[in-house]
TrEMBL record:
Organism: Methylobacterium iners
Pfam entry (one): DnaJ
Transmembrane among keywords: no
Domain J: start-end pairs: 3-68
Protein name: Curved DNA-binding protein
MF terms in GO: DNA binding
PROSITE patterns linked to this entry: DNAJ_1 (PS00636), DNAJ_2 (PS50076)
Length: 313
């Protein structure tokens, strides 16, 4: 696996927004649905997803930058527990000291086949069996990745629901909608892909999330936008009105003389974020006139028009 910064084509100091933009561009270009007969595109798509899993997560990105995890998100090996070291001296913390072995082998090089052949004999160099009886090389090929889509509603995203998903090949799994998921985002489900044999490592399932359109709300990241009807009397006098949210209607107070198009922010009434908090609901008012003729309102409107005409406004 290549360096995730190289995969996404961004510098090490890239912002979160630049990383997300680079990933979306690659995902759109190499998505399996658009490149069904292109094996290389499928590999690039999987590679981009793995890279974004690391760089798109602040914690994992920091671990990678510190060298604690590799380009696949796996902890970097620091040694084998239980070895006492070489040259009569024990290794630090009981762990196998790769650097010490490299020096004692007479080379200043890095960790490679030479070290493992020093441990396990020439069988490793020849590709034979290791000390546990398993082959060090030439094992069954890893299974292929599979692609699937999951369509969800905004309510399901808001409630982080557990859904049943049928993967290619007839396998059914339960999937919990993750916090901070976005429309078009692809999630890697490790080990849920195809297997090339009984002892082979299974591939992964690449699950693309599709958020269905909603009649009331529009998602903008973790925030939601909605238009709320404002009765004329409440627009003039102010007062509480009922505002719909994904988890039920709530009360919101509007000030007197509120015009159409004014937007109010309801904290925490949006979608879940990765850090456990929630986005906001941005409610924009739309004044609603009475359905039937209102003589008092009509007379008031005429008086206002006359006054405006008289002032030359």
């Amino acid at each position: 696996m290549r360096n995730p910064y190289d995969v996404l084509g961004v510098p090490k100091g890239a912002s979160e927004a630049d990383i997300k933009k680079a990933f979306r561009r690659l995902a759109k270009t190499y998505h399996p649905d658009r490149n069904k007969d292109d094996a290389k595109a499928k590999d690039r798509f999987a590679e981009a997803n793995t890279a974004y899993e690391i760089l798109g997560d602040a914690g994992k990105r920091a671990q990678f930058d510190r060298g604690e995890i590799d380009a696949e998100g796996k902890p970097r090996a620091t040694g084998f527990e239980g070895f006492g070291g070489f040259g009569g001296g024990g290794s630090r913390g009981g762990a196998f000291d790769f650097e010490n072995v490299a020096r004692q082998r007479g080379g200043g090089g890095g960790i490679g086949e030479d070290i493992f052949s020093h441990l396990f004999g020439e069988a490793f160099r020849a590709g034979g069996a290791g000390p546990m009886g398993g082959g060090m090389r030439g094992g069954p090929a890893r299974g292929e990745d599979v692609s699937a889509e999951l369509s969800v509603t905004l309510e399901q995203v808001a409630n982080e629901e557990r859904l049943r998903l049928s993967l290619p090949g007839g396998r059914d799994v339960d999937v919990v909608i993750p916090k901070g998921v976005a429309d078009g985002q692809t999630i890697r489900l490790r080990g849920l892909g195809s297997s090339s044999g009984p002892r082979a490592e299974a591939g992964d399932a690449l699950l693309t999330i599709r958020i269905l359109p909603h009649p009331t709300f529009k998602a903008e990241g973790a925030d939601l936008r909605a238009t709320v009807e404002l009765p004329l009397e409440d627009a003039v006098l102010g007062g509480p009105i009922r505002v719909p949210t994904l988890t039920g209607a709530v009360e919101m107070k509007v000030p007197a003389m509120t015009s159409s198009g004014r937007t109010f922010r309801l904290k925490g009434k949006g979608l879940p974020k990765k850090d456990g908090s929630r986005g906001d609901l941005l409610a924009t008012t739309a004044i609603v006139l009475p359905a039937a003729d209102d003589p008092a309102l009509t007379e008031y409107a005429r008086a206002r028009r006359t006054a405006r005409a008289g002032s030359g406004a």
